[in-house]
Amino acid sequence: MRLVRFSQQDSSAIGVLEEDVVINVAEAGEALGIDVPAETRALLGSPKWREKLELAADYAAETGLGRRDRDEVTLEPPIAEPQKVVCVGLNYVEHIEEGGEDRPENPVLFSKYPTSVVGPGDAIAWDPALTAEVDYEVELATVIGEESRRIDESNALDAVAGYTVANDVSARDLQFADDQWVRGKSLDTFCPLGPSIVTADEIDPHDLDLWTDLNGERLQESNTGNLIFGIDEIVAFCSRAFTLKPGDVILTGTPPGVGIFRDPPVLLEDGDEVTVGVEGIGDLTNTCSTV
Hints:
single chain; Fumarylacetoacetate hydrolase, domain 2
């Protein structure tokens, strides 16, 4: 199942994406007497949310109620305001090598602020007086579906609702100047997410191709099978430090090919179009804009 947020005529709703059709599950659910929350965090925190969505989608298929053509709506970030955006750095060996770093013994965590989240088609925007070295990073993003604290690796994947695509946009000059990563990673618009959340039952997170295209040129290409720390390890590691809530997002690291370590460096510029993608989930395209 593909879970999306979409807008139409200035109104936002949760939907299920089926090929070229978006189903307004709240509209279909209301006809069935099923309450579907309007925001993703609330939905994932509600009992039997998968069953609710399946019932609403089936009813829409039978009656046509709540069905919209994909081209008639605008997809928004699948989670508008996650409580936490947790990121894992240095999680692909070749990315570590291109940056001259040492392989970590444990997952390296940092955060991006929720105000950095944007959706498909939104602009990645920055002030050139603040940063002149803006970079791309494709990542598989894990979306938490159950409140979790101190869970074991053996059942950590049970806490996962699904997966989406992320671009961990980075202001490298700020990141390296600060000796820590939060400011350079958290500028507004620096966390594009989407286009949908694919539920965990449909995805093997440890065998997915992922890539970045900048203005049509392939610059990153790898597979999540190359992750140093797997999704189960990351989720369990995070839960030992802090409570994971439904709707929290965990970015799992980027493969080699980032712009700053190329010779010469390839950094984002005003007017660029950057597409990041993950197999089985889809492409996430954003334009770049200096403001």
